[in-house]
Automatic annotation (TrEMBL):
Enzyme Commission number(s) from the entry: 6.3.4.18
Keyword Endoplasmic reticulum (UniProt): no
Protein name per Swiss-Prot or TrEMBL: N5-carboxyaminoimidazole ribonucleotide synthase
GO biological process, one term: 'de novo' IMP biosynthetic process
Role noted for this protein: Catalyzes the ATP-dependent conversion of 5-aminoimidazole ribonucleotide (AIR) and HCO(3)- to N5-carboxyaminoimidazole ribonucleotide (N5-CAIR). Catalyzes the ATP-dependent conversion of 5-aminoimidazole ribonucleotide (AIR) and HCO(3)(-) to N5-carboxyaminoimidazole ribonucleotide (N5-CAIR).
Gene symbol of the encoding locus: purK
Organism encoding this protein: Altericroceibacterium indicum
Record keyword ATP-binding present: yes
Length: 350
């Protein structure tokens, strides 16, 4: 079968590889790390820095189509990959890897972000605090799982902060009722399908659980959120799975951020949807027909295993309803996503 190249070597790449294998494809992982949990389940692994043009060229020659599971791949070096092989294209990466760019992009398409201001200096931060009050200072680039963020509740805290001195954004704190994400897949022919939006809960800035069906406060706002997500996908000429995160508020859905890839809040779809986000991403980039995204049960719940070691995770094996996914990362450091568990519930019949 054809060879799929994946830029990035984490659990998303691992789950993409597994889905690809089911459809008769094999994967070649490209990542800067010397160890990769995605490479463990893939046919080939290139361990080289992102900026190694020769290695990228050789990788591209061996792959029929190339995708990414990590949105912080530097865009410049990707010029070494023939444009027609890359899906989604580099524009999606460029926009999604900069919080300022993604907010502006969403706004141009009618999206409503949290109040924000770019921050490069201490004066910028204090001015932003004076405008928006309590909020979160974030690095524009490379943050994930709440890393690279400082929550500020008072002006004194803002004054005392020893912040990096450029490339930041300050966001006013959104008083949200709930969080959700819109996950869609767009095929090469432009067809778009959405998964149901789960209710996402975060702990310490890290996704802890996703639950379906979501409460009415979310389902009432999913329509507007989907319109924005579809507009983003169209504008980018997007191919594959795209995720937009939202806050459900009294003023409607507030756009938080986007990820040009499969997403943690869609892991439930492996057992909880007829076609998972991973399989549909592979289908889309390979030009296959998209699969049905509907739920396989009446309710679905995904729990992240954060900092959970193998022995602790193994306890889910004695729970008949639990689908355990363990990523094989080794060291169970606090805050590290080690795996997840999915439950699919069926209403009693009768
Ligand atoms: P991810 O792992 O999702 O990429 P991230 O590091 O990019 O995370 P964000 O999504 O920006 O971080 O923020 C993480 C969480 O912090 C959000 O899901 C939300 O719970 C909270 N949060 C972020 N920004 C705001 C805001 N402006 N107002 C209120 N809460 C916020
Ligand atoms: Mg993010
Ligand atoms: Mg986020």
């Amino acid at each position: 079968g054809a060879r799929i190249g994946i830029l990035g070597g984490g659990q998303l790449g691992r789950m993409l590889s597994i889905a690809a294998a089911q459809l008769g494809y094999s994967c070649h992982i490209y990542a800067p790390e010397s160890d990769s949990i995605a490479a463990e389940v893939s046919a080939e692994f290139t361990s080289a820095p992102w900026h190694t043009e020769g290695a990228l060229r050789a990788f591209a020659r061996k792959c029929d189509v190339i995708t990414y599971e990590f949105e912080n791949v530097p865009v410049g070096p990707l010029a070494a990959i023939p444009a027609e092989k890359l899906a989604p294209g580099p524009l999606a990466l460029e926009v999604a890897q900069d919080r300022l760019a993604e907010k502006r992009f969403a706004q141009e398409l009618g999206g409503q972000p949290a109040p924000y201001a770019p921050v490069d200096t201490r004066d910028d931060l204090l001015a932003a605090f004076d405008r928006f009050g309590p909020g979160i200072l974030k690095t524009r680039r490379e943050g994930y799982d709440g890393k690279g963020q400082w929550r500020l509740s008072s002006r004194e805290e803002a004054e005392a902060l020893n912040q990096p001195n450029r490339g930041l954004i300050y966001e006013g704190l959104v008083a949200f009722e709930a969080e959700f994400s819109v996950i869609l897949v767009r095929g090469r022919d432009g067809e778009i399908r959405f998964w149901d939006s789960a209710h996402n809960s975060h702990e310490s800035g890290i996704l802890a659980r996703s639950v379906l069906p979501a409460p009415a406060v979310i389902t009432q706002q999913v329509g507007d959120a989907r319109k924005l997500a579809a507009a983003v996908a169209e504008k980018l000429g997007y191919i594959g799975v795209l995720t937009l995160e939202f806050f459900a508020t009294a003023d409607g859905p507030i756009f938080n951020e986007m990820a040009p890839r499969v997403h943690n809040s869609g892991h439930w779809s492996i057992e909880g949807a007829v076609t998972s986000q991973f399989e549909n991403h592979i289908r889309a980039i390979c030009g296959l027909p998209l699969g049905d995204t509907s739920l396989t049960g009446d309710a679905v719940e995904m729990l992240n295993l954060i900092g959970t070691d193998g022995a602790e995770a193994a306890q889910y094996l004695s729970d008949a309803d639990a689908h355990l996914h363990f990523y094989g990362k080794g060291d169970a450091r606090p805050g590290r996503k080690m795996g997840h568990v999915t439950y699919v519930h069926h209403k009693a019949r009768g």
